């Protein structure tokens, strides 16, 4: 049995304009995106197989043909939401601003081949910490099961 792929996002923060702006760049590896897409396709094939197929016995190519666009859209939305929340909350703790003031992500690039990447530019800050190029932060986005 294959080991599950951890859902990890990486981001960097850069202070700009003498502490008035903060640029957060978020990325996720293509393998993680593919694993999430495959996981959702597997769940669909197990819980709601197409007519004429037994649960869990549907070829991935069939599921992709029927549900491909919707699965990619749902996966993109889910991964952006999870990674955005984690990155902005962590940056807010580090730099002392209200995470609710962060704008929506821009320049979102998403595909199974390229992974996920986007930027968030938080403006209107007066940061006392002027550390440029803070180290990458990597975080597991899956909820811990107890």
Task: Describe this entry's structure for a reader.
The protein is of the alpha+beta class. Helices cover 37% and strands 24% of the residues. It has 2 helices and 5 strands. The protein has helices at residues 30-47, 60-95; strands at 8-16, 21-28, 106-111, 115-122, 137-140. A 5-stranded antiparallel β-sheet has the order 3-4-2-1-5. A hairpin with a 4-residue loop joins strand 1 (8-16) and strand 2. Helix 1 crosses helix 2. The model has no long low-confidence stretch (mean pLDDT 84).
SSE layout:
Elements (H helix, E strand, L loop, with lengths): L7 E9 L4 E8 L1 H18 L12 H36 L10 E6 L3 E8 L14 E4 L6
Helix pairs in contact: 1-2
Strand order in space, largest sheet: 3-4-2-1-5
**Distance from first to last alpha carbon:** 22 Å
The helix content, as a percent range, equals 25-40%
Annotation, overall tally of beta strands = 5
Largest sheet: 5 strands, antiparallel
Low-confidence stretches: none
Q: How would you spell out the order of helices and strands? A: EEHHEEE
Shape: elongated
- Estimate the mean pLDDT confidence: 84
Structural class by secondary-structure content? alpha+beta
**Beta strand %:** 15-25%
Helix segment count? 2
Radius of gyration: 18 Å
């Amino acid at each position: 049995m294959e080991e599950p792929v951890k859902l990890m996002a990486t981001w960097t923060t850069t202070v700009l304009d003498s502490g008035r702006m903060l640029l957060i760049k978020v990325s996720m590896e293509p393998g993680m995106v593919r694993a999430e897409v495959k996981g959702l396709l597997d769940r669909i094939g197990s819980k709601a197989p197409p007519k004429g197929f037994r649960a869990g016995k549907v070829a991935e190519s069939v599921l992709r043909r029927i549900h491909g666009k919707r699965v990619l859209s749902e996966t993109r939305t889910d991964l952006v939401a999870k990674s955005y929340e984690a990155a902005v909350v962590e940056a807010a703790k580090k730099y002392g601003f209200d995470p609710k003031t962060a704008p929506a992500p821009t320049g979102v690039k998403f595909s199974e081949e390229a992974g996920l990447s986007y930027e968030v530019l938080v403006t209107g800050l007066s940061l006392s910490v002027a550390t440029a190029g803070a180290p990458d932060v990597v975080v597991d986005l899956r909820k811990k099961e107890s």
